[in-house]
Amino acid sequence: MNKKIIIANWKMNGSFDDAQIWVENFNHKLAKLDQKSLSKIVLCPPAIMIDFIDELLLESEFAQIEKTQKNVAEIEEKELEKLVANIRKINLGAQDCSPHEKGAFTGDISAKMIKDCGANYVILGHSERRQNHKESDELISEKITAAKKEGLTPILCIGESKAQRESEEFKNFLKNQLEKSIPHNLKIEKIIVAYEPIWSIGTGLIPSCKQIEETLEFIKNELTKNKNISVFKILYGGSVNAKNSGEILKTKNVDGLLVGGASLDAEGFLEIIKSA
Ligand code: PGA
């Protein structure tokens, strides 16, 4: 069965207390759902919270292991890692990473640091970073290279503005973003592309399912042409909530969702997961 991927992007929201309440509440309710049909869940909190959330998840995973097996202290490290990986339902991701490995880059966080905190994914090229931090496609391509080097799966965001959508030029714009943001000289085993029209992010406006289907079809054709990419998934993002998620997820070509505002509420996010 082809599982959907549902990603929560908390952006710069929540305190550590909020994060703890969210994780405990979400985890508790998630355990009651049918685990076989569960989508792949990726939680992208502010980077500073990744390690904290990883520890919270480990605590509950160790408790589960101890219920059925022996004391975790007696289990060999590699074996324990495997057991944890088998029961982990919430994957972790960051919202950005540096293109550099290390050095004098005040305020930046490297892909390795993210990996070391327990994350396996990283959102790159989100329109808020493109706009607020003037990130270019070229920089995003360097960040994808850095992420791949550490084994992080990149979640590349692309999307047009309202004016671009209204002109017939928006497909060319998306094609250009894909061509320039994805490194040319790198084999990419796995990449997630999130189509997030800028005019839809946080506005409550969403394209029709027909428009989503057509745009994703276009993106799919472009990615298929790229011989360096082995596996790709295409998500939709922008004003997704528990009311519209079911319909969007049923739309052709949609492999999953990238959810911003509606992911801050654990119960609302769980409803989105349930709609898959
Ligand atoms: P939104 O944000 O769901 O709040 O519209 C989506 C995103 O920016 O990833």
**Could you name the ranges where pLDDT drops below 50 across 5 or more consecutive residues?**
none
Radius of gyration: 19 Å
Which structural category do the helix and sheet elements fall into? Answer: alpha/beta
Task: Give the overall form.
Answer: globular
Order of helices and strands: EHEHHEHEHHEHHEHEHEH
Bound molecules: 2-phosphoglycolic acid
Instruction: Report strand order across the widest sheet.
Output: 1-2-3-4-5-6-7-8
- Number of separate strands: 8
Largest sheet: 8 strands, parallel, barrel
Beta-strand fraction estimate: 15-25%
Distance between the termini: 12 Å
How would you describe the oligomerization state of the chains in this entry? single chain
Helix residue percentage = 40-55%
Number of helices: 11
Mean pLDDT: 96
Protein described:
The protein starts with a strand and ends with a helix. The model has no long low-confidence stretch (mean pLDDT 96). An 8-stranded parallel β-barrel has the order 1-2-3-4-5-6-7-8, surrounded by 5 helices. The chain is globular. It has 11 helices and 8 strands. 37% of the residues are buried. With 276 residues, it is of the alpha/beta class. Strand 1 (5-9), helix 1 (16-30) and strand 2 form a beta-alpha-beta unit. It has helices spanning 16-30, 50-68, 77-87, 111-116, 127-132, 137-149, 162-166, 170-181, 209-225, 245-250, 266-274; strands at 5-9, 40-44, 90-94, 121-124, 153-158, 188-195, 229-237, 256-259. Bound molecules: 2-phosphoglycolic acid (PGA). 2-phosphoglycolic acid binds at residues 9, 196, 201-202, 237-240, 258-262. The site of 2-phosphoglycolic acid has 13 residues, from strand 8.
